[in-house]
Write a structure and sequence with these properties.
Strand order of the largest sheet: 2-8-7-4-5
Strand content: 15-25%
Helix content: 10-25%
Number of helices: 3
Bound molecules: 2-acetamido-2-deoxy-beta-D-glucopyranose, copper (II) ion
Number of strands: 8
Order of helices and strands: HEHEEEHEEEE
Distance between the termini: 75 Å
Length: 151
Amino acid sequence: MMAKIEKVAILVVAALGAIMLQMTEAEDFTVGDSTGWINNPPGGASFYSNWAKNFTFKVNDTLVFNFPTGRHVVAILSQANFEKCNFTKPIQVLSTGPARVALNRSGEFYFACAFTGHCNSGQKLSVNVVSASTSTSPSPAPSPTASPPCQ
Ligand SMILES: *[C@@H]1O[C@H](CO)[C@@H](O)[C@H](O)[C@H]1NC(C)=O
Ligand SMILES: *[C@@H]1O[C@H](CO)[C@@H](O)[C@H](O)[C@H]1NC(C)=O
Ligand SMILES: *[C@@H]1O[C@H](CO)[C@@H](O)[C@H](O)[C@H]1NC(C)=O
Ligand SMILES: *[C@@H]1O[C@H](CO)[C@@H](O)[C@H](O)[C@H]1NC(C)=O
Ligand SMILES: [Cu+2]
């Protein structure tokens, strides 16, 4: 009888633990690590995509873009405008550094700096965000995001 109660107690604790783990999983990622959010990053246009390759981004994680206010911005773009470094109709522009962006859905997010020439010199980042429940296996589909050289 005692054993039964103990088993139930263990199951309850395990279930609560699993729920709490899921709830506390959200992470902050500092874009470019100590390099921050700059134009002409080392290695050029591949710098931020190489940085992103090292991580798995999950829904509710946060990207932190470090830059001095007034030197850069973070524009959130559509894929088409990202590929052309086109800032005509950004989805959103964050002008104050450091800028925090919540990855509040799964799928691709596209970021670039809107200052003249910065996107073309490699200050652009795309990330794929997976839903937290699929985090057991890495997302298979490598998206065709190799950007053509900007005009
Ligand atoms: C990504 O990971 C590779 C291999 O672990 C490492 O050499 C590289 O410095 C990392 N790049 C960034 C931008 O963190
Ligand atoms: C993300 O955060 C929102 C608001 O806190 C919450 O309702 C939602 O369940 C979270 N989603 C995941 C996948 O953790
Ligand atoms: C830039 O984006 C705007 C709005 O999405 C679009 O109307 C325009 O045609 C684009 N310009 C180029 C050169 O692609
Ligand atoms: C995510 O956040 C952005 C910016 O705050 C907001 O415009 C958008 O509606 C949000 N998306 C979802 C799925 O909550
Ligand atoms: Cu910039």
